[in-house]
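Worked example 3. Consider a protein that binds 3-phosphoglyceric acid.
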Amino acid sequence: MKTIEQLSISEKRVFIRVDYNVPLENGQVADDTRLRATLATLKYALSKKAKIILASHLGRPKGKRVLELSLAPVAKKLSELLGQEVKFAPDCIGEEVERMVFSLAPGEILLLENLRFYEGETKNDPEFAKALAKLAEVYVNDAFAVCHRAHASVVGVPSYVSECGAGFLLAREIKYLSALLEKPKKPVALVIGGAKVSTKVGVLMNLLPRLDKLIVGGAMANTFLVADGHTVGTSFYEEEFVEEAKKILTTAQEQGVKVYLPVDLVVADDKEATEAENVSIFEVPADKAAFDIGKETRKLFAEALAGVATIVWNGPLGLFENELFAKGTIKVARKSAAQNAITMAGGGDTLRALKMAGVARAFSYLSTGGGAFLEFLEGKKLPGIEVLEKKS
Ligand code: 3PG
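Given these inputs, the predicted complex is written out as structure tokens:
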């Protein structure tokens, strides 16, 4: 696959697919991580005096023009981050957009309106893809987070543009994730949490042969505890995935992967509770639910991380939004960051949790992807990446 540095972009109209699907609050960008993650590519393209056309989706407007999902606030925020004007087009295709694109001077940037205001984007309609492709002389994908979607701007446009490649963000994501799958630095530990086993079975099964240690927390640990014969009071767990959890535990054992499940839990009446208690997994009260790993488990997990060479993290270990239930995630996050290891994490909740623990910057690599991160780790081929590979 070509990277942007191998493309001739000087003074050309360069269509860059970015993922600016960011949270907005009161009409302003509430978290600019995904914008910052593209700055290296944008600065490089600016240094080459490219005429930059940025395209993104925001939310899921399902082909309707939803005012609250306009990318206008993103153009404003990006202008601040770059210290230069980012023009904004009121649409993403059509005559007015073409006029704006064709009058761009070298070194200028234009952000198009939300691609998903057209159904053609998610349906990968060839006519819509051609209307976008018409704007571009060169196509760059710097939107790892949407590479698992076979949408028009991800797979359609590159098939109509001859010069295509990956931006720095995408290239970096592929580099770290491929290294993990192909030649991981051992020993490898996977820290996995979040609510559901069901969404992570594919990742667990694909990663198991590469792992030395599997550390399970969050509500999904409850399903594993039930699989291991425990009762978990009123805690959330997925009954229909207990058998799957058993299979994962057996496979781990067969493959020599050491599994760490909680040995104690922080339990309370409900997630808004203001009081909680620490109980052993053998003594979870019938009327209480677990919302964090317990004190002994924090120690156990922290010790398990000592000396590992690669740590991959997806999913918080407790309901960290309530500070009563944040200790597990914070302690294990800090311990991970303090290791002399390659530390990788992905997923929106995970990144928020690492920020809260004050260690996000200490991680070697934070994926901008949620679904894309998981699908890559499941071993699936992402359509947005495949199309670029075929072009080279
Ligand atoms: C994401 O936030 O994971 C990507 O932007 C993809 O968004 P989607 O799930 O709406 O396709």
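Take a moment to read the result before moving on. The two ends are 5 Å apart (CA to CA). The longest strand covers residues 13-18.
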